[in-house]
Predict the structure.
Amino acid sequence: MIIIEAVHHDNSVLFCIGWTLRFTLGPSLQPYKVHLFCNHPLSGQPFDRNTYNELTWTCLPGQQCDDADRFAEIKAYTAGSFHFYVTYNDGEELETE
């Protein structure tokens, strides 16, 4: 699990095939509308380092959901090192090189 915070930038992840990686929002980002993007390819698609897909925030089914409960997941279909970034607050990017 990766907890995304506004002041902490761990924006690269090493994936192993078959892993499911879950992102959650830390307290510093919970009040915002956050968009999460990752360049891990969708199932059946080739890897392109410059192609990012927006991940969908969700909650566990059948439970009441608040900002602390939201998460996004990636099922790793290919192994490697991938990059992610978030935007929030009307497009402000939270990313480091």
User: Anything to note?
Assistant: The chain has no helices and eight strands. Strands lie at 2-4, 12-15, 20-25, 35-38, 53-55, 71-75, 80-88, 92-94. The radius of gyration is 13 Å. The chain has a mean pLDDT of 80.
